[in-house]
Amino acid sequence: MTQFRVAVLGATGAVGSEFLRLLARRHFPISTLRPLASPRSTGRSLSFKGANIPVQAVSESAFDDVHIAFFSAGSSAAKEWAPVALSKGVTVIDNSSAFRMDPNVPLVIPEINWHAVRPEHRLFPVGNCTGIILMMSIAPLRKFGRIRRIVASTYQSASGAGARAMEELAQQTRDIAEGRRPNVEVFPHQIAMNLFSHNTPINEYGYNEEEWKVIQETRKTLDMPNLAIEITCIRVPVMRAHSIAINVEFEGPAPSVEAMREAMSTTPGLKLEDNRDANTFPMPVTAAGRDEILVGRLRCDSSNPNAISMFACGDQLLKGAALNGLQIAERLVAEGRIGVEVAAN
Length: 345
Hints:
By secondary structure, the protein is of the alpha/beta class. It has 2 domains: about 1-100 and about 320-345, 3-Layer(aba) Sandwich (Rossmann fold), CATH 3.40.50.720; about 130-315, Dihydrodipicolinate Reductase, domain 2 (2-Layer Sandwich), CATH 3.30.360. It has helices at about 15-25, 75-85, 110-115, 130-140, 165-175, 210-220, 255-265, 285, 320-335; strands spanning about 1-10, 30-35, 45-50, 50-55, 55, 70, 90-95, 125, 145-155, 195, 230-235, 240-250, 270, 295-300, 305-315, 340-345. Helix 1 crosses helix 9 (about 320-335).
């Protein structure tokens, strides 16, 4: 079996750690793993398949002889190091927003728009985590007619802001439970026992950066540049997995609940949880750690015969980030799109 030399930039972060776990769990064919991070992480070791692998400081030479590099170190690092890696023939899968809206680069969710990938493509941004969860949830509905408008409200977990944000939520929760005043450092406001508008800058249109990303990236990925989207993104005191309340309006009559359930239950990457009798629907506590996006609360919009409403939960660190990136790599390998030089013994 052919194996590949793989680098992971940002290997010590929340998404980088998920990449390492997924590479092992999904048995990605690796001959050499090269964990990369900033110089301050030099000297650390990370466990991979029972071995301790030292973390290297990222440098130009770190990408020598690498086939695939997974980036999860932010936009600045991606803009600095992706051109270096690409110049060395590396296929780069980047989890930042640095290249998502580049018209020459595909923004791929493998289950939805793999047809956008061309033989010359070697840079693959992973879309916004909230956008991925939203698009995975609505993708099966496109068979019922052209979508006219999407209205969504998100409930976004601390995991979307990284490992330090998750630690802050845990510590603030302990502080409150023990009668101490919680310390606020990572988020701009107290996150435990609270919620607030997504902690990204507001643009001239009144949308925060997260909302604007979802709007623009959804239009690009679905190849619907004029799709009407209204979204409000909120941080909530949940450790892991984002949730979205979604309303979808069609240009014609909406599908029945039965048709939607059938479509959702047969779509790869989705798991239908829609038990009205037991009042059991998607929850972040059950979505956390799952590869699938959970969908439920399916119903026809009583105020609009052309619209439906639903609720979705997905693990921000998995399908919303590392898993989507690894699925891109798996498809590239399966189709022979990555240079093959290392043969397994």
